[in-house]
Write a structure and sequence with these properties.
heterodimer; A: 269 residues; alpha/beta; Rossmann fold; four-stranded antiparallel β-sheet; 11 helices; globular; B: 381 residues; four-stranded mixed β-sheet; 12 helices
């Protein structure tokens, strides 16, 4: 398993230990069906925070709550001491401008070219001229290895390329927090590794906080320095912290099984 | 799987008693695509006789097998399990034994089989009523958001792409001309023939022009255009927005802080508001042409037909039809976009959304048509 050394973010050491996202007593429910209850965790500035757990345990739903696309049944979400759950729609919108989101399927707007997809974000929130927008869009596409694809429509490129274009759109505004929903799903191992490297570089160079939903073990160990483990049976978070620490020290058999692909800890020693 | 050494015989299962034990013998070629014996015969045998000590599966006559055999054995072993009878699988092929172990490795999860409880009629009526009010709520909410978006458009602060608007205008305007031409012309022809049968008896064939002219401009032009656009454009709106919901494109707009109602619904509604009056006028004209074609058959010259039409029509009647068409356009855009936003998260849900958009918009158009008839009558127009 390729384990890339995660250097702690060197700059802004003081800021790095301040919580960026705090979740208190969050309960997620669809109608009367409770998916997860009493989630409590905090994400520091510059963390790469992994939301992990088995299929169907509510990882993506937790992400939707963090983005404000779904309302919590109970509990609150804070960004830098700003109560996101209680905020009115206008304030929420302002907060969302600091987010960049890469959706599971890329979610590029299919009626627009890649440059227009990125351009729309810039048009909304900057005063750049049309040529400047085009230049920034080209830059963002070049950063994800899609130079020259400005005038392609999403349906004309492959799934992996759509995902990278989605990432280019997510980082169009140099967001403070980047959210990734299953970034490596549907990517080959090499592309997935390149995406991991890209995420690390973004964090190190922009100082962004990154929240990743994934169950790709290689990625979890390569990039994550903080995490939460959602357990579907007890319907709450049963572990959290640095995934490598969890692997070495966690006594929870479910966490161990998950992090070792089902191999019992005793057998692997 | 083994090569067939000779011609396969049909799959057979027999249950025989052997001392204290029950022997289930499977023989022949077990393939999913051929008829397979039912596992029920084991259950009947177990129910009938005194309980055996064990059930022995024997495959000595088995030729070839696939999942068909496994399904049979799994069902048979479920029966044994329920009755608490031991099984002996040692005489089955080793591959079958392993696959059965694999199938039984994870115990059935409780509560996964959804229970179909028969609800009483009162309960169902209650549920449907609750659902109706819930839906009315979302509709009113959506209507409010659209009104806000239109308001922002009027003060020039709405966020949408002009190029999107142009594409939609072309799609629901120019591209719809062909079908509107055909249908309107034929409606004109039908109206003319209907009237001609009666009017000819009085030698008043020329009044077909009055009938077709007033009928088209007052009602039929607007209604036929609306029905065509419901099927053509309303369904397309629902499918487009539904797909965008499935692929999370709408979520991407929301997290970006762009209102999906402004960005997606507004241009669609504007396009229909702009195009419906024009299409309605065009439809009126085509209908009158259709009537004139029938007039020629009735020996009414085209010139006198058009003179009669011009004489019969009043600008007010035409304006009434165009006004109605505009309202129908708003209703079609509302229904299409609402159903698109309500779409679930699968490809079949997109199909449902398109279907229900067409149904909703046609119902709304017909209801509105009825209301207009009453209101215009009261106002004496």
């Amino acid at each position: 398993m390729p384990i890339v050394e995660t250097a702690a973010p060197s700059k802004n050491q003081a800021q790095a230990r301040r919580p960026h996202i705090v979740v208190r007593g969050l309960t997620m429910a669809y109608g009367s069906f409770v998916l997860m209850r009493n989630l409590n965790f905090s994400v520091q500035h510059g963390d790469i925070f992994i939301i992990m757990g088995g299929s169907g345990c509510g990882k993506s739903t937790l992400l939707r709550h963090l983005l404000g696309l779904k309302e919590p049944a109970t509990g609150e979400i804070f960004y830098d001491d700003f109560n996101f759950t209680k905020a009115d729609p206008g304030q929420r919108e302002l907060m969302r401008r600091r987010f960049g989101v890469l959706y599971q399927s890329g979610a590029l707007w299919s009626s627009m070219t890649l440059a227009e997809n990125i351009g729309l974000v810039l048009e909304e929130f900057t005063d750049l001229s049309a040529t400047e927008i085009r230049e920034v869009a080209s830059l963002k596409l070049a950063l994800v290895g899609l130079k020259g694809f400005e005038d392609f429509y999403p349906s004309e490129i492959s799934g992996g390329m759509q995902k990278r274009a989605g990432l280019a759109r997510a980082m169009a505004l140099d967001p403070e927090i980047l959210f990734f929903d299953e970034p490596s799903a549907g990517l080959d191992p090499i592309s997935s590794r390149l995406l991991d490297d890209l995420i690390l570089q973004l964090r190190d160079n922009l100082g962004s906080t990154v929240v990743v939903v994934t169950h790709e073990l290689a990625s979890i160990f390569a990039i994550g320095n903080n995490s939460i483990f959602l357990d579907i049976d007890s319907r709450t978070a049963t572990a959290g912290g640095d995934p490598k620490e969890l692997l070495a020290h966690s006594t929870d058999p479910k966490v161990q099984r998950f992090l070792r692909r089902g191999v019992e800890p005793a057998a692997s020693k | 799987m083994r090569e067939a050494e000779h011609i396969d015989t049909a799959a057979q299962a027999s249950v025989n008693r052997n001392g204290d034990n029950l022997v289930v013998r499977v023989s022949g070629a077990w393939h999913l695509k051929h008829n397979l014996p039912s596992p029920n015969l084991l259950k009947t045998a177990l129910d009938a006789a005194p309980k055996p000590a064990a059930v022995i599966f024997d495959s000595s006559g088995l030729q070839r097998w696939d999942s068909g055999l496994l399904a049979f054995l799994l069902a048979a072993s479920d029966v044994c399990h329920q009755l608490g009878v031991k099984e002996d699988r040692s005489r089955l092929p080793i591959g079958v034994q392993r696959l059965l172990q694999l199938a039984e490795a994870v115990p059935e999860k409780e509560g996964t089989q959804s229970e179909h409880i028969r609800e009483s009629i009162v309960e169902r009526v209650g549920e449907v009523t609750e659902g109706f009010f819930e839906h009315s709520g979302t509709f009113v909410d959506f209507l409010g958001q659209v009104a806000i978006a239109l308001g922002r458009f009027l003060v020039g602060r709405a966020r949408y792409r002009k190029s999107d608007l142009m594409v939609i205008v072309q799609d629901c305007g120019a591209n719809a001309l062909g079908i509107v031409t055909l249908i309107s012309f034929l409606v004109g022809v039908i109206l003319a023939f209907m009237g001609a049968v009666q009017l000819q008896q009085f030698g008043a064939a020329i009044f077909v022009a009055d009938l077709v002219g007033i009928g088209m401009t007052r009602e039929m032009g607007a209604v036929m255009t609306a029905v065509i656009m419901s099927g053509r454009t309303g369904a397309a709106f629902a499918a487009q927005l539904g797909t965008m919901k499935v692929t999370q494109e709408i979520d991407a707009l929301t997290t970006l802080g762009v209102s999906p109602v402004e960005f997606l619904v507004l241009p669609r509604m504007l396009a229909l508001i702009l195009m419906m009056p024009l299409l309605c006028l065009y439809s009126d004209f085509m209908g009158i042409l259709g009537g004139a074609a029938v007039g020629v058959l009735l020996h009414v010259s085209p010139i006198s037909y058009f003179q009669e039409t011009v004489h019969a029509l009043r600008l007010f009647t035409i304006r009434g039809g165009v006004f109605k068409a505009t309202v129908y356009g708003i209703l079609i855009a509302l229904a299409g976009c609402l159903r698109g936003f309500q779409c679930g998260n699968s490809s079949s849900a997109v199909g449902d959304a398109a279907t229900s958009a067409v149904v909703t918009s046609i119902v709304m158009v017909v209801v509105a048509c009825g209301l207009f008839a009453v209101i215009f009558n009261i106002l004496g127009i």
